[in-house]
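2 proteins. here.
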Amino acid sequence: QVRLVESGGGLVQPGGSLRLSCVASGSIFSIGTMGWYRQAPGSERNLVAIITSGGSTNYADSVKGRFTISRDNAKLTVYLQMNSLKPEDTGLYYCRKLDGNYWGQGTQVTVSS
């Protein structure tokens, strides 16, 4: 069984920054390809950023140049550095381990003045 736990969400003003973390535990030796997803109120869950085991990354157009996904394989952890946050970035942020389709419980990010 694999468990993913996100942290780092909170309330931030527009233009501010947050760093999300997702720690994996359980019967795994590596985390493989990981993704961060966002679900705004009343909306579907959408991909924000993805990183492969080799470190290749891809981002949603709406966050390119502002968000950075990274990983620490030794710690089984993936991060999402979010800068220049906008109100439309508000939502529940989930991490996902694509191999096996495991999801975390989500962490709330609210961007508001």
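next one coming up
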Amino acid sequence: VQLVESGGGSVQAGGSLRLSCAASGYIGSYCLGWFRQSPGEERERVAAITRASSISYADSVKGRFTISEDNAKNTLYLQMNSLKPEDAATYYCVRALGIAGYVDCWGRGTQVTVS
């Protein structure tokens, strides 16, 4: 499977961005989701969605970020509202073995800057 992110950019605090992830190849029963990593920090699981549409969010983004997918377009989205400087990171689209499971495929990432 290939995962290609887009939609990153620079935004002021309080603003919004929507990230997209185009998935090609076999998804099957795998979970899709988003991680992020900022310099000097560990990767953080941000949000995930299962094939049954169960959703999980990191506490740090609950109420501000929304994960969704368009199965017809094989595209995963992450709507990010009320962005904070601490949300600045490289965001990665991932395929995982469960909503909190092992990630076996990573996209290349898209950069989000919040000033």
